[in-house]
Amino acid sequence: MTVLTVPMAEAGPASLTRRTRVLRRLRRNPLAVVSFVVLALAAVVALLSPWIAPYSVEQTDFGHTFSPPGTPGHVLGTDDLGRDVLSRIMLGARASLEVGLLAVATSLIIGVPLGLAAGYFRAWDAVISRFTDLLLAFPFLIMAVGLAAIRGASLGNAAVAIGIAQIPGVIRVVRSDTLRLKSLDFVAAAVVDGASDLWVLARHILPNATSVILVQATVAIPAAILGEAVLSFLGLGIQPPAPSLGTMLATAQQFAARAPWAAIFPGVVIMILALAFNVFGDALRDALDPKGDR
Amino acid sequence: MTTVESPGAASSVLGAPVLEIRDLSVSFTTEGGTVSAVDRVSLDLAPGEIVGMVGESGCGKSVTAMSIAGLLPSSARISGSVRLRGTELVGTRESVLRRVRGKEIAYIFQEPMTSLNPVLTVGRQIGEVLQVHERMSRPAARARAVELLSLVGIPSASKRVDNYPHQLSGGMRQRVMIAMAVACGPKVLVADEPTTALDVTVQAGILQVLRDLRDRLGTTILIITHDLGVIADVADRVVVMYAGRVVERAQVTDLFAHPLHRYTAGLLSASPTPGKHAGTARLQEIPGLVPVLSSQPDACTFADRCPAADSQCRESAPPLEVVGTGGALAAKDHLAACWHPCPAPRTQPQETDL
Amino acid sequence: MIRYLLRRAWQSALTLLLSTVVVFLGVRALPGDPALALAGEDRSPEALEAIRHHYGLDQPLPLQFAQYVERAVQGDFGVSIRTGTPVSSMLTTALPVTAELSVLAILIAAVLGVGAGVLAAVRRGHPAEWLANGLALVGLSVPHFWLGLLAILYLSVATGLFPASGFVPLLQDPVDNLHHIVLPAVILGTGLAAIIMRQTRSAMLDSLSSDYVRTAKAKGLRPRAVITRHALRNSLIVVVTIVGLQLGGLISGAVVTEQIFGLPGFGKMTIDAVFQRDYPVIQAVVLLTAMAYIVINFFVDLLYSVIDPRIRVTGDPA
């Protein structure tokens, strides 16, 4: 590796002020603040759910099946086996977030390097775009069906299927940002100074592409959460009796007329989680948009 | 304060003005506060004359131009008066303005690439104006579009009419813009930096088309540019703007022969002189930048960049009037807003040098 | 134009081939003996041998692949392990249901999404924009199958306005058919509508601030003409792309929607096959989805070149 690269003297303080500016803009946006608070609360509840949930999720009580919400001891009621809906929602939300993060991590780990390569090396671009086309041809549900057929249904397989399906999106945004950054002067200067490609990618392009990656991640997580719910609902994700918002809905569907609350609350929680991520993602994108400067 | 005006310069010669702009002021409300873009601009356009409006970027030239037909965004606050043959346009209903736009007052913009719609043929875009204002049928409008395209000098117009903008060169696109602008025979053509985005060789052709239009159709043209070469080439009269104000107004020959305002003098020495002296002298730049003003001060806004500025310049705004220059007498339609106008005619000694 | 189409055709063909390889290898990766999987009920050694021979499982892998492609092209996807019916005949009954559901959902989503997107862009700062943006965010965040559950619960079961499940073929009774399929289509369309709305809105905001819209205003056109003829026409290019890219999401959504509303389509067939380990069916489903996606996106590209003259003439997307 060469030592002749130009140190990014200006990028340091410039990106620092940029970061504080973005944070300030986020703080001033009430929607950003509200969605962030919701997400922080959800994260705390999910993390602590094994300890703070009022009941064990698998604890059945056949004496109190289908208790309506507001029943003493069961704020959100009980389901067909007398299990506490609130406790199951808490742990279900934990599973949702887990799958969301796992899926997005999968897509980033594979998608970011491929996106960088596609944008930086002309020769790789065509190959990687065929790969992207190929992935796009298998929707996440079909991917999950295939994986379930080969390896059996599980939380991990659901997350991997969703993650793989999200790779093309990551490649697309990282590729276009790499193309943009590559044409900028400081990158050209580093190349002229004899920096190796890997060095340029790692030190100059990747750090500057983090903002688009971050935005992509915030919109991918809610999509993954919804995807997990779908797969679990269909029985292709988390296997009962482990609680998941999707499996709760699948069970509740059979008794929906008798115990609508069991079908309503888990759905509301999925929606709130996804909405909070989407709203925060929008606010983040606005805050990062240089057009909104001044 | 009052500005001493001689409204309607040159109107006695050429008849009643087509367009009268009086005390036009424009300010914008932005997140960062109010920005005053145009300050009490007055200007008359006589039938068939070509008036050049010149100044650096951010002087309020384009804002003035856009405000004539009410094309500014809703964040703009406009006061003053713009009369088209006696009809007031400022504050008029949108439906009235729509009948004026494209029919009475037409525009040409700087970027011919982005100013044309990429997904419609040029014939369709020209024809659209005729369909709206002249109630022409689509085939009739198309046929007229072919005539207009040949009028502005586009070869094999009957083929080009079905082209999309991206199939044409920059110069051709600008000719299409002109054809579109003159389709309904407007009284006034506002050309906002029409040649800035074009090659020099193409520039000359476009300016020739504009001159032809004036000669053949009698169109009044307001041409906005930062290029004094363009002014020297086509304009009859010049208006020099600085920081939202008109600082000098004169016949083209007078202005080039004897700039009065220090800013005009600065602009002239910052541009290569067309003709013999081109390239022989070092160009002077004007130090500093055009200020962005939140309000218009009672002072000369050029004072901070002016070599001749004194306390008077910073304490009261000079009126736009005929100024005495000590010795050489300025023409009676040569106005400047300057407390300390340039003393000597500029070209005389230079000519004798050779 | 020709060059562009040829290039796209070549790329699509390549992707098609690759996806076939992936599915083929995926089938190899299935647990157990593929012959066993293909055998169905009769698992005697002779029957297995016959299957191995029939499907060429005793041949080298590349040859097997060639035969696999050949059979797929002829529409031979084997026989369902559970029912013994040929997979191809199962598909012919299931596909029209899914196709109708999807087309209807796309139509609903396009009308709602483009309408709301234009409204939000044109009425900037008005309550209408706020409402449209909010609805789009909710549409993006709500689990559609849950919306379907609620719809069945409160619209079908409670009021009897719509049938809760079941399907009537279009040709048998068009009115009853629509009655059965309109609610699932609306539910399936909401997510896509939200995505289309957001894309339309941002594309419209871009074109409304463009130079050519300024030109159109300077020509004295009415706001309606400026918006539809100039701004919207350019924005639609973006919308068409989005619909093409979202097709995968739509297929996934259709599977769940069919499951909830009990529509006997492709999705229900898929889910049933997974739980019955009906490998020939799963394989056909995966392969056909990929092929449908690729072929439809090729046609989206064709549509592209109709809308955008820059592609039509020069062969280069803008």
TrEMBL record, chain A:
Pfam families: BPD_transp_1 (PF00528), OppC_N (PF12911). GO terms for biological process: transmembrane transport. It comes from the Bacteria. Keywords: Cell membrane, Membrane, Transmembrane, Transmembrane helix, Transport. The keyword Iron-sulfur does not apply. InterPro entries: BP-dependent_transpt_permease, MetI-like, MetI-like_sf, OppC_N. SUPFAM superfamilies: MetI-like. Gene3D superfamilies: MetI-like (1.10.3720.10). Residues 93-281 form the ABC transmembrane type-1 domain. It is a multi-pass membrane protein. The keyword Transmembrane helix applies. It is found in: Cell membrane. The chain crosses the membrane at residues 31-53, 99-121, 133-150, 156-174, 212-238, 259-280. One of its GO terms (cellular component) is plasma membrane. Belongs to the binding-protein-dependent transport system permease family. This is ABC transporter permease. It comes from Micromonospora sicca. The lineage of its organism: Bacteria, Bacillati, Actinomycetota, Actinomycetes, Micromonosporales.
TrEMBL record, chain B:
PROSITE patterns: ABC_TRANSPORTER_1, ABC_TRANSPORTER_2. Residues 21-268 form the ABC transporter domain. Signal peptide: none annotated. It is found in: Cell membrane. GO terms for biological process: peptide transport. This is ABC transporter ATP-binding protein. It comes from the Bacteria. InterPro entries: AAA+_ATPase (IPR003593), ABC_Ni/Peptide_Import (IPR050388), ABC_transporter-like_ATP-bd (IPR003439), ABC_transporter-like_CS (IPR017871), Oligopep_ABC_C (IPR013563), P-loop_NTPase (IPR027417). Its main location: membrane. The lineage of its organism: Bacteria, Bacillati, Actinomycetota, Actinomycetes, Micromonosporales. It is a peripheral membrane protein. It comes from Micromonospora sicca. GO terms for molecular function: ATP binding; ATP hydrolysis activity. Belongs to the ABC transporter superfamily. One of its GO terms (cellular component) is plasma membrane. Keywords: ATP-binding, Cell membrane, Membrane, Nucleotide-binding, Transport. The keyword Nucleotide-binding applies. The keyword Lipid biosynthesis does not apply.
From TrEMBL, chain C:
It comes from the Bacteria. InterPro entries: BPD_transp_1_N, MetI-like, MetI-like_sf. GO terms for cellular component: plasma membrane. Keywords: Cell membrane, Membrane, Transmembrane, Transmembrane helix, Transport. SUPFAM superfamilies: MetI-like. Residues 95-300 form the ABC transmembrane type-1 domain. It is a multi-pass membrane protein. It is found in: Cell membrane. The chain crosses the membrane at residues 101-122, 134-157, 177-197, 236-261, 281-304. One of its GO terms (molecular function) is dipeptide transmembrane transporter activity. The keyword Acyltransferase does not apply. Belongs to the binding-protein-dependent transport system permease family. This is Peptide ABC transporter. It comes from Micromonospora sicca.
